[in-house]
Amino acid sequence: MVSIAMREIEDAVHRLVSQHRRVTFTVLSSAFPQYRWQTLFQVLHELQEKSLVVLAPLPWDYEIRAADAIGRTDGRTR
């Protein structure tokens, strides 16, 4: 069961990713300095399980993309 606090973090992270379409984990962790990396990765895992975000490894970071931004090469959403 997901706690209310975790759901609030999940909603905030999802809003940020939805607004920016693509962010790195470094940017995400800077936007939420009050949370530990472990917490952010747990939230990202939950969002990925719900098909709301996609994580892609970069050489020294992760890219987090809004799921509905996948497949577009022109930068626009559906």
Instruction: Give the number of helices.
Output: 3
- Give me the side-by-side strand order of the main sheet: 1-3-2
Assembly classification = single chain
Q: Mean pLDDT, nearest integer?
A: 89
Q: CATH architecture, please?
A: Orthogonal Bundle
- The fraction of residues assigned to DSSP E strands is 15-25%
Say what the CATH topology is.
Arc Repressor Mutant, subunit A
User: What is the total domain count?
Assistant: 1
Helix share of residues?
A: 40-55%
Which CATH class?
Mainly Alpha
Largest sheet: 3 strands, antiparallel
Structural class: alpha+beta
Q: Segments where pLDDT lies below 50 for 5+ residues? A: none
Secondary structure: number of strands:
3
CATH superfamily grouping: Winged helix-like DNA-binding domain superfamily/Winged helix DNA-binding domain
Shape: globular
Describe this protein's structure.
47% of the residues lie in helices and 17% in strands. With 78 residues, it is an alpha+beta fold. The chain has one domain: Winged helix-like DNA-binding domain superfamily/Winged helix DNA-binding domain (Arc Repressor Mutant, subunit A), CATH 1.10.10.10. The longest helix is centred in the first third of the chain and has 17 residues, at 4-20. The mean pLDDT is 89.
Concise account of the structure shown:
The protein has 78 residues and is α+β, with helices and mostly antiparallel strands. It contains three helices and three strands, in the order αβααββ. A hairpin with a 4-residue loop joins β2 and β3.
